[in-house]
Amino acid sequence: MSSKEWYSTTIGDQLLLQRGYDITKAEQREGIIPVISSSGVTSYHNVARMKGPGVVLGRKGVVGSVHFVAGDYWPHDTTLFVKDFKGNHPRFVYYFFKWMSGILASMDVGSANPTLNRNHVHPISVQWPPLPEQNSISAILSCLDDIIELNNGTNQVLEEMAQAIFKHWFVDFEFPNEDGQPYKLRCGEMVESELGEIPNGWRVMRIGEFADVKGGKRLPKGHQLQIQKTLHPYIRITDLINGRVDIKNLLYINDDTYPFISKYKINKDDIFLSIVGTIGIVGIINEILDEANLTENMAKISHIQNHICCKHYLHYYLRSELGQHLISGRTVGSTQFKLALYRIKDIPVLIPSSDCMSKYDQLSRNLYTIIDNNELQNLTLTAIRDTLLPKIMSGEIRVPIEEAAV
Q1: Is residue 269's pLDDT more than 90?
Q2: Which of 39, 135, 203, 306 is most buried by a 10 A CB count?
Q3: For 151-174, b where at least 16 C-beta lie within 10 A, e where not — what string?
Q4: Structure pTM?
């Protein structure tokens, strides 16, 4: 296969980029259409502005981010999107811009807020493969991404299982005894508490009695987040999905900034929750994240005394209907809701018997071991993909067309 099959062109000759469309939260209606901002899917709407598949670039804010969307979508004003692929393979275009993400990030033309101008992207000279090779490149790289998505789907099912077990044991009070018989079914004794009727032998404690509560930290003035990976991820509320951190869209703090906020880092045995704006989003730190830091809009619950309350139990307790009600009742504010740290410490928590807590702790740890292993595999696959990407896109490694699915 000759390298002459690749030809010189410009991005503008191959694609047409256009600025996205503004839409406020107030204008959005309940629906399934993803609204894609520079940081990824931030919300959903009932109307699409573009047919899928689509490729979306960060234009304002997170300059250089690249997102692929299979179905119809709404590209936000903070993005550029590919309005016309001009016959090119959409997946190839996505991987092409992923390869160029560093260059795009360096093309910031904003002053106070980073901005990417499409008129600066269109004239860039590139080497471009013919469509058959685009298909082959897309097929090979997509195989890796498909496995990653399969792992993500498995983790979603395991997360739902963990939630279902928590509800069955600690909301419906059908936790099993040594013979596997549910508590209520065997007519277990219930007693009154400030949280209502609870199984005999259980108790109620405040979070501040068995854990510490501290807030996150705003980045120092003049310090920017970056998409280039460092040892210091910076967790925002938008990074949280189903109680876990969405690693693929994380932003990072550079080594120069980290010393200013290092004492606010969150550890993998901690729980965090949002305390400004959208209150009560609760999550736990992924085992594979080290040296992560929280924004000032979140708090962490740390040094949890495991013999009293394990982190997985407290995580789901705060995400439950009761937990969310207790959080909401301690929220104040008119124009912007806030949850003070001392109010978090005062939240009452139902504490099961030590035997029941121990069994749940072991069960939940087993589930999350599988989840963490899948995340580790995803990191490995992502590293392989990201290593192959520049070699394939530069033509250093050629993809046999006849061996790849179109």
Answers
A1: no
A2: 39
A3: beeebeebbeebeebbeebbeebb
A4: 0.74
